[in-house]
Amino acid sequence: MVEGGNISKPDKTEFTECWKTTWKTPYIMRLALSAGIGGLLFGYDTGVISGALLYIREDFEQVDRKTWLQELIVSMAVAGAIGGAAIGGWISDRFGRKRSILIADVLFAVGALVMAFAPAPVVIILGRILVGLGVGMTSMTAPLYISEASPARIRGALVSTNGLLITGGQFLSYLINLAFTKTSWTWRWMLGIAAVPALLQLILMLSLPESPRWLYRQNKEEEARSILEKIFPANEVDDEMNALKLSVEAEKADEHAIGDNLIQKLKGALSNVVVRRGLYAGITVQVAQQFSGINTVMYYSPTIVQFAGFASNETALALSLITSGLNAVGSIVSMVFVDRYGRRRLMLVSMVGIILCLVSLSIIFLEAASHAPKVNQLDTNSIPNTTCRSYISTPKPSSWNCMSCLKAGCGFCSNTANEYSPGTCLELTTKQRDWCRGTWFKDGCPSEFGFLAVVFLGFYILSYSPGMGTVPWIVNSEIYPLRYRGIGGGLAAVSNWISNLIVSLTFLSLTKALGSAGTFFLFGGVCVIGFSFIYWLVPETKGMPIEEVEKMLESGYKPKLLRAKSKDKTQFA
User: Fold this and answer.
1) In CATH, what is the architecture of 22-208+264-366+450-561?
2) Cystine design at 43: which of 156, 170, 316, 557 (Cβ 3.0–4.6 Å)?
């Protein structure tokens, strides 16, 4: 059933039903995959900066020495995405889902080329802002387009293709990062090649129609019908048209109270109890998704691997590729189970796994820090004019280990015979790095626990991806009344990107202030709070027509624990 249809609740849906339906009607999958390239763009931008940043730091010394500048380069794409998500809902409602996606493609392509030819860090930041604008618009418009062109019985699985392409884009970015590590332009190729999928989607979308729901709303009934005829069997098209007619007429009847401009629609949305309750759920899952710490892994994965003791850029990128691949696997799992076990259950189980993995990572990094190699006092003091100044002035040099050296802003040159044996603490300069005959560490220390950190990063991704990775976007494509879907989805997407900005803009600073162990433990504590909010505020929307979702929110939702105690009271606080 197309969004807004007045048809009874569909039967229990499984991924196999999606396969059968799209096999019979491949046009549905063509629509979903073409729009889903927006998810690929989203994912590519998320992943590519983690590897590119390693080489940007090598080309620009000021970036390497200033943590805040690294965070700025990473997070300005997120800042741009906040603006893109904020206006994306309005543009998609006013000009159509298709045009919104096309505008995003242009922004993404231009931004990628600006970064590729950037002569200075400030130009990279400008390109990141442009890319972010496109990604922000796509983040809510692409799932919306897919949702409105999908039968209800397979809607969750099809919207999940967007999530799959997000993780696929992340995996692709790591492959491309590895491919260009030996080239002379390294990070310029990594960032610039992102223009290719943007131009591909632009070409594909030009040949596809607008959302049938949006067309009908614009009184283009014949165009809407022609699209429905490609999606549904002939004997169901009339029912779908009648459903659209009833839904649109109901919307128009309410328009005088809603208003036509953005401010009036916002006021109307926030004064509507169903929309407010939908926003409670939609914003909750989007904020919880980001504060699970996922983008500390996606944006800084190679850096985290270096924190764990793998100093080589190539090694860090290769190990990060494993976590990205697991993310793609998790998205496939989500597509299989999201319509079988439901959105709510997948998210709750996912959050439990995330919490356990974050606590485990915290313990691993704590152990790694306490067992870091000692500083060899004799060797360190015997090298004139190169010894770390903080080490020279410390009253207790015997207490220093590699971690103490790095926290003081210096570099650690490992023992040439065994990197776990005492090494030297030197000034953090290119000269000292080149002089070091062992392995040069400046982000993390040699650690026998390093492989465990990579293992639990993998478990973390496997816990996150099937639930919190894709399901929040599905919930936000289903939870709002149709007339407020663009506004509701936009507000939720903005909350997602604001949370993303906070996480990406503070992660490196947090690791300096709290250490890797303290930072992961902090995220674990926040996830406990997120689990509680999801349990109390987010209802199940699996396989429910939009009308039934509205009725559920109107009467109110409460979890079974409260429902059993207060049957006669409203189910939604």
Assistant:
1) Up-down Bundle (1.20)
2) 170
